[in-house]
Amino acid sequence: MHYAIIAAGRGSRLVQEGIEISKPLVMLNGITLIDRLINIFCENNAESVSIILNKEMMDVYYHLNAQKFSVPISIMIKSTISSLHSFFELSFFLRNKFFCLTTVDTIFNKSDFSNFIQEFEKNALFIDGMMAITTFIDDENPLYTSVNKKTFEISNFSSVSCSKYVSGGIYCLTPSTIKILDHCVKTGVSHMRNYQQKLVECGLKLKAYIFGKIIDIDHSNDIIKANFFLKTNERAHLSSIVGVKRGELYSPGSNNNDSVIFNLTSEYLKKKDAR
Question: Could you give the residue ranges of the DSSP H alpha helices within 124-219?
Answer without folding.
Answer: 176-186, 192-201
